[in-house]
């Protein structure tokens, strides 16, 4: 079994894994990083969303062979020195979460949106967030929190 070396939340990791193992299972089951959630398992719900080399990916469909040398950030790594990211603060202030299952993916997707568009309008937000499913229907609060973080 090949040894795969990468970085998660600024921590180096070296782990035995098959090339076609999915990254989400390694994160959750072997590394105990459970912020990324298993929703659909086929890359359509967004519950597992993380950053890989600064880009949003869905680790339920990322094979380990694509992880060698990568730098990953999950929701656990978004706060720096225990200071929450402004998007996390906005999420708390707007009381966004209901069941919470999808929220890590929602927050990371919102962070990416604000990196590329610091002042998004409703349409920008809806477009950027449309592939992250929330079964509780918290979309209106997600929109408010993104505007709050952008302000
Ligand atoms: Fe990965 Fe749904 S669990 S996108």
Automatic annotation (TrEMBL):
Protein's UniProt keywords contain Iron-sulfur: yes
Gene3D superfamilies documented for this protein: 3.10.20.30, [2Fe-2S]-binding domain
InterPro entries the record matches: 2Fe-2S-bd, 2Fe-2S-bd_dom_sf, 2Fe-2S_ferredoxin-like_sf, 2Fe-2S_ferredoxin-type, 2Fe2S_fd_BS, Beta-grasp_dom_sf, Diverse_Oxidoreductases
PROSITE patterns xref list: 2FE2S_FER_1 (PS00197), 2FE2S_FER_2 (PS51085)
Superkingdom of the source species: Bacteria
Species the sequence originates in: Alteromonas marina
Gene Ontology MF terms: 2 iron, 2 sulfur cluster binding; metal ion binding; oxidoreductase activity
2Fe-2S ferredoxin-type domain location: 2-78
Pfam family for this entry, one: Fer2
Name of the protein this chain belongs to: (2Fe-2S)-binding protein
Keywords: 2Fe-2S, Iron, Iron-sulfur, Metal-binding, Oxidoreductase, Ubiquinone
């Amino acid at each position: 079994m090949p040894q795969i070396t990468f970085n998660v939340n600024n921590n180096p990791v070296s782990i035995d894994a098959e090339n076609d193992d999915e990254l989400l299972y390694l994160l959750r089951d072997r590394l105990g990083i459970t912020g990324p959630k298993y929703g659909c398992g086929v890359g359509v719900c967004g519950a597992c969303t993380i950053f890989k080399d600064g880009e949003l990916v869905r680790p339920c469909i990322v094979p380990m062979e694509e992880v060698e040398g990568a730098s990953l950030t999950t929701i656990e790594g978004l706060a720096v020195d225990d200071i929450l990211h402004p998007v996390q603060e906005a999420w708390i202030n707007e009381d966004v979460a209901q069941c919470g299952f999808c929220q890590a993916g929602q927050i990371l997707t919102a962070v990416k949106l604000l990196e590329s568009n610091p002042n998004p309008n409703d349409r920008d937000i809806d477009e950027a967030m449309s592939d992250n499913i929330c079964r509780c229907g918290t979309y209106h609060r997600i929109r408010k929190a993104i505007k709050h973080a952008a302000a």
